[in-house]
Amino acid sequence: MQLGLVGLGKMGGNMRERIRRAGHTVVGYDRNPELSDAGSLSELVDKLQAPRTVWVMVPAGAPTQSVIDELAELLAPGDTVVDGGNSRWTEDERHAAELLAQGIGFVDAGVSGGVWGLENGYALMVGGDAEHIARVRPIFDALKPEGPYGYVHAGKVGAGHFSKMVHNGIEYAMMQAYAEGWELLEKVDSVTDVREVFRSWREGTVIRSWLLDLAVGALDQDEHLDKVRGFAQDSGEGRWTVEAAIDHAVPLPAITASLFARFASRQNESPQMKMIAQLRNQFGGHAVENTDGVGDHAD
Q1: What number is the average pLDDT over the span 123-142?
Q2: Which of 11, 40, 72, 194 has its Cα between 20 and 30 A from that of 202?
Q3: Distance of alpha carbon 100 from alpha carbon 102, whole angstroms
Q4: Number of structural domains the chain divides into
């Protein structure tokens, strides 16, 4: 299958490579010409055979809207656009309607896997009409992890991004719990090796997880997290999850508290946020602020 892929950053570039390893043809476009296979969106579309499928992997909001607007002018009836970024689910219905008016299909895809997805595969939560999803299914199969899990047609347009948003809200709460436990262990005199306590939890315990593995990896690099500031950003999905909970009268005390904890980290130095910042760096390549004021990345 042929695929156009717009946005070749930390995730997009690895996705292109994984799809190619599965035997598909990928024509990538990025504003950085050193990464691109095409010099423009127009050239990308020209290199694809109809019916075309173009996957958009750029930041949510105005950048995604700009790309979809341009693709609407370049593509033809029977083509399909996939939004694989972290767009808000409320934008998906508008994008789908705008494209459908020109006979172009739309699929929203929540993608999880971060910088590890190239080797491990990406968890995919997709929304849209079955006929549009069927067109893209070979690409979903190439991206997903091996085995029966890691892919779901979650429902109609918007369901993919809504599911990914809730996933990220849960992620917020899980990271917060690990961070709070780590800070408490560090505070008491009787526990002399917090890092090894965390390591011991990786096998045989009910709280073992990939996040716990990443926490141990972060502590191996900086045992007491002395090199990183207790400051953690939020990328939007946590806020949207809490807003959706309010709209639907669903209590989310743990997720809401974890979001507010990140807000608190921007006011005062927070030991817990050192762990949150390092976990975000470990799984997603998100920047951390070091104690010397210099940013750092996992990639």
Answers
A1: 97
A2: 11
A3: 5
A4: 2
| Domain span including residue 36 | 2-157
How does pLDDT run across 282-299, given as a tens digit for each residue? 888 887 777 765 555 433
With beta carbons less than 8 A apart as the criterion, state whether 209 and 201 touch: no
| Structure tokens belonging to residue 193 | 């090796």
CA 126 to chain centre: 13
What does each C-alpha distance from 26 to 19, 148, 207, 249 come to in angstroms? 7, 25, 39, 43
Is 10 known to be catalytic? no
Confirm whether 298 is domain-assigned.
no
Percent of the chain with pLDDT over 90: 83
The active-site residue out of 10, 70, 98, 164 is 164
Q: Do 48 and 175 lie in a common domain?
A: no
Hey, is 229 helix, strand or coil?
coil
- 3-class secondary structure for 30-47? CCCCCCCCCCCHHHHHHC
Contact predicate 281/219, CB 8 Å: no
Which of these, 158, 180, 176, 178, lies nearest to 240 by C-alpha position? 158
Return the DSSP state at 227.
Answer: T
The per-residue pLDDT for range 166-217, each reduced to its tens digit, is 999 999 999 999 999 999 999 999 999 999 999 999 999 999 999 999 999 9
91 is an active site residue: no
What is the rounded distance in angstroms from the CA atom of residue 256 to the CA atom of residue 258?
5
Q: What is the mean pLDDT of residues 61-65?
A: 95
- Residue in the block written with tokens 């949207």: 240
Provide the pLDDT confidence category of residue 277 given band limits of 50, 70 and 90. Answer: confident
From the candidates 10, 17, 70, 171, give the one annotated as an active-site residue. Answer: 171
Residue that is last in its domain, among 117, 135, 157? 157
Rounded Cα–Cα distance for residues 198 and 184 (Å): 12
Domain boundary among 104, 139, 157: 157
In a domain, 296, yes or no: no
